[in-house]
TrEMBL record:
SMART domains reported for this sequence: B3 (SM01019)
Record protein name field: TF-B3 domain-containing protein
Region (Disordered) residue spans: 105-132
A molecular function GO annotation: DNA binding
Compartments where found: Nucleus
Main localisation: nucleus
Transmembrane annotation, as ranges: none
SUPFAM superfamilies, A to Z: DNA-binding pseudobarrel domain
Amino acid sequence: MGSSEDNHPEFFRTFHPDHNSENLRIPDAFLEHLSKKIPEKVVLRDCYDDCWPVEIVETEDGMFFQGGWSMLVSSYPLRGGEFMVFKYDGHSAFDIKIPNSHKSKKQKVASSVSQEEAKLPTGEEDEEEVVMDQPMNSAKGGIFGRGSNRSVTGSHVMNLEKRITDLFPSDNPFFVTKFKTINGRKDVTIPQAIRKGYGLKFGNRIKIQDPKGRLHDGKIAIWKDGRHAITNFWKQLCMFNNVMKDDNVICELIPSTTNTCRLIKVQIIHPNTD
């Protein structure tokens, strides 16, 4: 067991198919190092941003990754002898590294190609930001989208405005993004109208608070054209909060006194809810 440079605790295990196909024990020494207990449900996330929801089960023999663990084993697949590193974010997610796995070796080329393609500005087909004709009185930020050629009018705007007013009585800037599909979601772009209009600054990492108050680690990617995108989180949001197609996801940006945004609070509005 050890600690990374950003003080997130980690441990390592070697995978043995005869003993670890259905569950994997978390070392006692690692658990003693934690300041609070691991929640009953966590996410295991690899370097490709693939995620597996897993249940934590405690028995007289120790604490285990169990429900959902076998899905990770079969997805890679793990065959035996793989060295596995688990880095805990302190809340509800473990970043995993399996350097000698079949998946890691097989996907090195494909991964490097997709990273090169990601540097180019592209339209995000699974994302749609809502554009309002008028800024809302109750929130400084209003709802801004990526372009200005589209607006949402009529009763939908009124209902959405009222529900956002109820959710966000503060003056913090925010935007709404609409999920056209939840499959393969990788990032969400922060509208430039908000980022530049409020002079917001971002580091490489950001904390994201989901509707249940759980904190997650996200990353900020900056494209060549200057766009800022929130990454490394959205699959967790969908899995833990039942995000469905056409749901509106509200992202409230919480700036510090220096206008650096280190926290984003997320709320979800289902279109069929009054």
